[in-house]
Amino acid sequence: MVRSLSGAMHGDSHFVLPLLKFKEFDQYTTTHSLNVSVLALGLAGALGYSPDDTREVGVAGLLHDVGKTRISLDILTKPGRLTAHERATMQEQPVDGARIILKSEEELDLAATVAYEHHVMLDGGGYPAMHYSRKCTFASRLIHVCDVYDALSTRRPYREAWASEKTTKYLEDRSGTEFDPGLVSAFVKMLREGEARVQVLTDDRSTVAVEPADVPHQHA
């Protein structure tokens, strides 16, 4: 996963510099984008993606929220409920993100598609509204699972972080409507296998399972 993430950005300022500017803009969004990329890399690997395809998904995870740079921080970090106008502004970020990516000189068609589609639900809900019924790309559905897990698992100004068990239950409960069932199943399996492998040997020689670091909700 580290090699894949490094490879996604290696020697390419087109990726690194926007992320550095992103950090100055909003620390949470930067961390969230990196978390989603790492989760997506792990899930793509668990699903048997080739190295090249895994890299492409990782880049899409890094850039999925780049459209947020067009949103005022007053809205992006607002601690209370958004007004109708503010929510409409937030829901413009997938379109803005896709446009930003497409202006790049790099071949980032998948990343642009994911930026546009990652808030669209399996049943067609979410945003932006589709003009005709169609299935989002597999990568967009994959990033959507990782995005929501990370968002719900992180403390935000308007709510506390959810425990990993509560977040995975949310994914499972909405499997088949918001989320792709196969991807949810593979994602939860990946997390649980990770939890089983990460252990701490205590002084009394017993082992204690340790949850992976809880990782970032944006205003939906």
How do the strands and helices of this protein lay out in sequence?
Layout: H1 2-9, H2 13-25, H3 27-46, H4 51-63, H5 73-76, H6 84-90, H7 93-102, H8 109-117, H9 138-152, H10 164-173, H11 181-197, E1 199-201, E2 207-209
Antiparallel strand pairs: 1-2
Helix pairs in contact: 1-4, 2-3, 3-4, 3-9, 4-8, 7-8, 8-9, 9-10
Describe this structure in words.
This protein is an all-alpha fold and 220 residues long. The chain has one domain (2-209): Hypothetical protein af1432 (Orthogonal Bundle), CATH 1.10.3210. It is 57% helix and 3% strand. Strands 1-2 form a two-stranded antiparallel ribbon. α2 (13-25) packs across α3, α4 packs across α8 (109-117) and α7 packs antiparallel against α8 (109-117). The longest helix is centred in the N-terminal third of the chain and has 20 residues, at 27-46. The two termini are 28 Å apart.
Features:
two-stranded antiparallel ribbon, 220 residues, single chain, 11 helices, mainly alpha
